[in-house]
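Illustration 12: SDR family oxidoreductase.
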Amino acid sequence: MPDPGLRPVVLITGAAHRIGRQIACALAEAGWNIAVHYRSSASDAQHTLRLLETFGGRHCLVQADLNDESDTRRLFTDTLDALGRVDAVINNAAVFEYDEATSFSTASLQQHMLPNLVAPLVLAQELHRHVSTTRPKEQAVVVNLLDQKLSNPNPDFLSYTLSKAALKTATTMLAKALAPHVRVVGVSPGLTLPSHLQTDEAFQKTHRMAPLGQASTPTDIARAVHFLLHSPSITGIDLVVDGGQHLVGMDRDFSMMDT
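Figure caption equivalent — predicted structure in token form:
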């Protein structure tokens, strides 16, 4: 991390709304400068930027299509150009579309693998190159947003689950490969916000099915990310933040339980 007198910089993918916005606001309040990545949600990203500006510091918007490797690399460069440095990357953006064994296709797997796995790898690579060549005595951090369902897989969302399983494995491999310049950690949320397949009523019902009576909230995830960013001895782990949902095996994905 940088000198305590400097505000560190974090690039957050998919920070225009939902969990990404919550993480961005929490970190801005804690003294970070934020690069808000978005693909097509420009108006939502502008709203996030206005929220961040209330916390002070310097923040920016960076647009990129994470399906495109060159665009993903440009995303990192644009962040450097705008904010001067990058101290952390939070890989929050993800595609979450339904398929299962009988509807699986190559196209579906590729649709998930490029933004959910390849883009996080590329950004970790860029962060390592940046820190190891310009600030070799400092330590940067990659936080990969994973999923509690990896602990108890079910057949729903096959391509999405495969992409997150690969990212979890990559988290371990990168933690070894990029040390000591970059720590790589994972956070696995439980059911945190309603999916596009859920009603609010169904979401509330399944949210209460966690052993603690409530699964994760966006604030819970933001706190976990903040903790890991400021824990210099932690790398290669997956911190499950889900109210205990990973302890309970489910036959279906939570978002499908009311269908």
